[in-house]
Amino acid sequence: MSYIERIKPYHLDVLKEIGNIGAGNAATALSTLLNRSIDMKVPSVRIVSFQEITELVGGADKVVAAIFLRLEGDAPGSMFLLVPVSEAEELIKRLLGDPSFQLTEPPFDDLGLSALQELGNILAGSYLSALSDFTQLHLQPSVPAISIDLAGAILSYGLIEVSQVSDFAIVIDTEVYEIDNNDSHSSGHFFLLPDPDAFERIFKSLGVEMDE
Asked: Are 56 and 174 within 8 A, CB to CB?
């Protein structure tokens, strides 16, 4: 039995709790940036195969805003944040106070892309900080890269190298709300793709034994 097959629901509950702590930290940072009261939640954490990733973001033909980071340190791997373009636009419009910002047709505003990159830094950094605190593992993210494209194209390109060393991803579903504004809901998916040995290292560091 592989280590993936040995992962049980309570293992994922541990990662969900860590994700919610990270989301709380990210919400505080976003509230400061946007000058609004922001709340974030992680409704679920799952493990999926690479074949399932495209389906989770609405299909290969869905245009998304993607942020990619490479993780180095004690549990190396990769991380994608995929957000529907319309929701990424709304976040950046509120961040910049610029209602004309768009991600539908290039060229895209450099300031807006920098703001999106900073959002990716905040979200990824918050999750990784919470994971590091719980596992005592050193995790260092790279500078994020940004792409606006079809989900299939982004994932095909981004997973070519990763798929040579891993077959599964941890999916951290993320929801962002502006408190007192029911129309401000945004959602996205974090795909955490630890290198094979890193999967076991993360769970063992959480005190979860992956027994045969």
From this structure: no
Count of C-beta atoms within a 10 Å radius of residue 94: 22
Let me know: does 128 contact 139? Beta carbons within 8 Å. Answer: yes
User: Would you say 27 and 61 are in contact if contact means Cβ atoms under 8 Å apart?
Assistant: no
pLDDT at 161: 55
Q: Higher confidence at residue 156 or residue 133?
A: 133
pLDDT of the residue at 156? 74
**What region does 4 belong to: left with phi over 0, alpha with psi -120 to 50, or beta?**
alpha
CA angle 84, 174, 131 (to 5 degrees): 130
Domain ranges of the chain: 3-205
Tokens 């769970």 belong to residue: 203
Query: How open is the CA angle 152-154-160, to the nearest 5 degrees?
Result: 95
Position 129 confidence tier, pLDDT thresholds 50, 70, 90:
very high
What topology is assigned to 3-205 in CATH? Answer: Chemotaxis protein chec (3.40.1550)
